[in-house]
Design brief:
This protein has 341 residues and is mostly helical. The protein has one domain (1-340). The chain is 80% helix and 0% strand. The protein is built from 13 helices and no strands. The protein has helices at residues 2-34, 40-53, 61-68, 73-78, 81-105, 111-127, 134-165, 171-210, 223-239, 242-251, 257-276, 283-296, 305-340. Helix 1 (2-34) runs parallel beside helix 12. The longest helix is centred in the middle third of the chain and has 40 residues, at 171-210. The radius of gyration is 20 Å and the shape is elongated. The two termini are 12 Å apart. The chain crosses the membrane at residues 44-63, 83-106, 112-133, 140-166, 223-245, 311-337. One of its GO terms (molecular function) is phosphate transmembrane transporter activity. This is Inorganic phosphate transporter. It is found in: Membrane. Keywords: Membrane, Transmembrane, Transmembrane helix, Transport.
């Protein structure tokens, strides 16, 4: 019975990873599609490939943070296998529900923060506030603000540097060069997306396994967790969330290939650097900041601030909304568990 429950929740975790890729496909390909460098079908295949390649070079710093840096893993494990399974199941369902809702609305919210919110909400009924790791949550919350600002800064810097480097060239030549370079920048960003986002589910799967059937083993990330999570997020990216792609690629600002290259490179470098530090940041927040930064180099009116405002509201509500849903799911799960004994 316990083994069957563990397998079920690992499958749910991989479903969340698939939905993460589906939801966040826009982050990786919106600019390369909006600038018509690649067709949508080729773009998602390109992004999915580099999502998966990240499995072989991405590390597991973010996975360890997600597994032990939001909730007190040892305290949760001490509460027993049933508590572990119910908390993680509720957290995953809360995050999945918020992701699907924002996908339906076409809003690029953060899958990372939805999962963090789900874990926070599901832990509170079991362990209370002492079951949360305040320093880890504070760091994640801080980068809700910092990651888009860093992405914006690097996007502006890349755009200014790129424009200066080619200011003596004809527009046709510049467009030709950066259409090719955007393949590289899109690959960088897709790699960074796999590096950061796939690791979060590795941490969740590790909590489930080492909190239940492998309670006598030390917490670590196995190779099969790495491969399966990267495969799931790559498949999700391949099937893509086109509603959000339209918002990211067309509704925020109009991008030329040089702008797409600058936004993707600035956003990708930011995410890779923060992943090496073990900080689970939002690829959505980062690339949105980078796109807005690139657009703002053409003047304040080049950015559609009404759309940006809608996106910011989605960011603000992600953690509390996912936490609330996970609390409700936990309550319903508790009723079912008691009914079946």
């Amino acid at each position: 019975m316990l083994l069957a429950a563990v397998v079920l929740i690992v499958i749910v975790a991989l479903v969340f990873d698939f939905i993460n890729g589906f939801h966040d496909a826009a982050n990786s390909i919106a600019t390369v599609v909006s600038t018509r460098v690649l067709s949508p079908n080729l773009a998602v295949a390109w992004a999915a490939f580099f999502n998966f390649v990240a499995a072989f070079a991405g590390g597991v710093h973010v996975a360890n943070t997600m597994g032990k840096g939001i909730i007190n893993f040892e305290m949760l494990r001490a509460a027993g296998p049933t508590a572990v399974l119910m908390v993680i199941f509720s957290a995953l369902i809360g995050a999945i529900a918020w992701n699907l809702l924002t996908w339906w609305w076409g809003l690029p919210s953060s899958s990372s923060h939805a999962l963090a919110g789900g874990m926070i909400g599901a832990t509170l009924p079991v362990l209370g506030f002492q079951g949360l790791v305040g320093s880890g949550i504070a760091r994640i919350a801080a980068f809700i603000v910092l990651s888009p600002l860093i992405g914006m800064t690097l996007g502006i810097a890349m755009m200014v540097a790129s424009t200066w480097a080619v200011h003596r060239q004809t527009p046709l030549r510049v467009d030709t060069w950066f259409r090719r370079l955007q393949l590289v920048s899109s690959a960088i960003f897709s790699f960074s997306h796999g590096t950061n986002d796939a690791q979060k589910v590795m941490g969740i799967i590790a909590v489930v396994l080492f909190g239940t059937i492998w309670r006598d083993r030390p917490f670590h990330i196995d190779w099969w967790m790495i491969i399966s999570c990267h495969a799931a997020i790559a498949m999700g990216t391949f099937f893509g969330g086109w509603r959000i792609i339209r918002t990211m690629g067309h509704s925020l600002t109009k991008l030329a290939p040089i702008g797409g290259f600058s936004a993707e490179t600035g956003g990708g470098v930011t995410i890779i650097a923060l992943a090496e530090l073990g900080i689970p940041v939002s690829t959505t927040h980062t690339i949105t900041g980078a796109i807005v930064g690139v657009g703002s180099t053409r003047g304040w009116r080049a950015v559609k601030w009404g759309t940006a405002g809608r996106i910011i509201w989605a960011w603000v509500f992600t953690i509390p909304a996912a936490a609330l849903v996970s609390v409700i799911v936990y309550g319903l799960t508790l009723v079912v568990v008691r009914l079946v004994g």
